[in-house]
Amino acid sequence: MVGAGTDRTKPLFEGGPSIILVRPQLAVNIGMCARAMANFGLSDLRLVSPREGWPRTGARRKGAYAAAAGAVHLLEKATVYESTEAATADLNFVWATTARERGQFKRVETPAQAMPECARATLSGEKHGILFGPERTGLDNDDVALASAILTFPVNPAYGSLNLAQAVLLCGYEFFKAREGGEKPFAQDERSPPAQREMTLSFFEFLEGHLERSEFFKPDSKRPVMQRNLRNMFHRMNLTQQDVRTLWGAVVRLVEGPRKEIQTRKRIKQPKPAPQPAEDSAAD
């Protein structure tokens, strides 16, 4: 669902490395990249010679804005350059993304390795940028030559092609994790404290008593092993007090059947409505 998980009352993260899309081919991919940037607080989108131009009106604009799924503020602020040199002129450090070795003797890092460095540098005031090439061919060697280091992705070598927005997403995720500490956005509330051993042992005795009466522990020689296996199964669950109460109640219902009040309601039949006398249709 578009917008699911969005809370506009929370502060909007901004900053991070500039995302530089070099000669992107499709307006919809630019929109998807903007969405990926917004997910992880990246706010500077730069476009180098988009193949379709940068659509401010018309069907292409509609496609890009729809794909951005609410991150239209990044599309509105996007800056367009005629060359990669111009798009990187004000940056202190540039990463070039590529799936293959280029023979340029530059440092090679993965996003997980590079983005902590990028986070520290940008927080101290440096300006970093990440170059992403055209969807079909990737960056050319002249673009890579402008970079300080190479960024590559550890993916299936038999299918190493990443969607443009996916590549932006991976970098954004690692950057945000490095900058914000990687803490979970929320945690599960503990609704019931862990069950004490006294409580679980009482449940075991209750359960095993009914299983014994149902001749579950057969043959008798295997009873100790079956009993240990059953108890270990429950112990591995780290049962809460509510878990034990729920299990206990479920076994009670299986043993005793439906509650008496339910049975009583089933036995009581509602009286059928008395037949209404037919109206006399004869005229007075």
TrEMBL record:
tRNA/rRNA methyltransferase SpoU type domain: residues covered: 19-173
Recorded GO MF terms: RNA binding; RNA methyltransferase activity
Segments passing through the bilayer: none
Gene3D superfamilies xrefs: 1.10.8.590, 3.40.1280.10
Pfam families attached to this UniProt entry: SpoU_methylase (PF00588)
Sorted UniProt keywords: Methyltransferase, S-adenosyl-L-methionine, Transferase
Presence of keyword RNA-binding: no
Gene Ontology BP terms: tRNA nucleoside ribose methylation
One Gene Ontology cellular component annotation held by this UniProt entry: cytosol
Region (Disordered): 262-284
Family indicated by similarity: Belongs to the class IV-like SAM-binding methyltransferase superfamily. RNA methyltransferase TrmH family.
Protein name: RNA methyltransferase
Species of provenance: Rhodoblastus acidophilus (Rhodopseudomonas acidophila)
